[in-house]
Design goal:
The structure is a single chain. The chain has one domain (2-181): TonB-dependent receptor, beta-barrel domain (Maltoporin, Chain A, Beta Barrel). It is 0% helix and 67% strand. The chain has no helices and 13 strands. Strands 1-2-3-4-5-6-9-10-13 form a nine-stranded antiparallel beta sheet, with no helix packed on it. A two-stranded antiparallel sheet has the order 7-8. A two-stranded antiparallel ribbon has the order 11-12. A hairpin with a 7-residue loop joins β7 and β8 (124-125). The protein is globular, with a radius of gyration of 21 Å.
């Protein structure tokens, strides 16, 4: 579904079921091996919004809730096992505020529920909420200075896993400064 309550704002929604066969996953104990996991199903809902709420405030955000699981038993994965790195609810929202004609700021949230690191569902990557921000100044029409802050509250989180023993942490607090030039 797609709906535009006004010309500058679009809201989308999708309800889905995705069935896959002959699925595979990384071995929970050996990242160099691939194992067959049979068939998988994902049932879910996604809702998104993007656009201008008024002349000073724009947004881009979304919410998704899904359940992804193994449909039939194999020697590597039992029926009902949740698919690794497939969070149930996720949420993201970016707000962009025009403070003056040349100065703007942004504030965003990224949230993800617990997930499993591998198909055996023994190691849990905990849920997290990350806060990001930005401030930008248009020096001239084609020149912009921007400062971005990621993970402002320096939360510890895990962004990815290749198996139960190879888990990647998310970035700690980071500040980036950029000079952006446009050429026509």
């Amino acid at each position: 579904m797609k709906w535009a309550p006004k010309q500058s704002l679009t809201i989308t929604a999708a309800l889905y079921r995705l069935d896959r066969t002959n699925t595979r996953a990384t071995d929970p104990n050996d990242a160099t091996r691939i194992i067959q996991t049979g068939a998988a199903r994902a049932n879910g809902l996604e809702i998104g919004a993007t656009g201008q709420l008024n002349r000073f405030w724009s947004i881009a955000g979304g919410y998704a809730n899904q359940k992804a699981f193994v449909v039939s038993d194999t020697t590597a994965a039992r029926a009902g096992a949740l698919i690794a790195l497939a969070p149930r609810p996720t949420f993201s929202l970016w707000n962009n505020f025009r403070l003056t004609s040349r100065l703007g700021a942004g504030l965003g949230l990224v949230s993800r529920s617990d997930t499993f690191a591998a198909i055996d569902n023994t190691v849990v990557l905990p849920a997290y909420l990350r806060t990001d921000a930005a401030i930008f100044w248009n020096v001239r029409e084609n020149l912009r200075v921007q400062v971005n802050g990621e993970n402002l509250f320096d939360r510890r989180y895990f962004a990815n896993a290749d198996n139960n023993f190879n888990i990647s942490p998310g970035n700690p607090r980071a500040i980036r400064i950029a000079l952006i030039a446009r050429f026509r």
